[in-house]
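Practice problem: predict the structure.
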Amino acid sequence: MSARRHLVWLGLTPEPEQELPTAVAALRAPADGRPPSALVAAERHRVERLVLRGTQRGWLRYLGEVTALVVEAAAGAAPADPRPALVAGEVVLDHHRMLIGLPGAGYARTAAQRRALERALARLRSCRGPAPAGHFAPRSTV
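Answer:
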């Protein structure tokens, strides 16, 4: 396999590396408000390291962790603020859907995650009340 094929996953979309660190930090943080800046920085560093030095397999493993966080948030009692889970879930679901255009088994490998994210996002959208002013704004699904 060529080096070019090994890197094709990097060209999908910049949204995961832009939007996931803050959303994932909020999902990992205690539910008492915004995540600490150190947690956001650590998550940003982890994503940067995966993108710059990682593999598609490692990246998909990370997105699997994010999927688990979103599913957990949707399965629990209605979260105080579902927006971080909505943002993270929509970003990962969009990413996983785009894998269909890449060579390899990434799309097939993420089928169960796509189904889990679709169910979790439907639940999170149904429990979303009026959005208070703050950092997260759910992405549009056009």
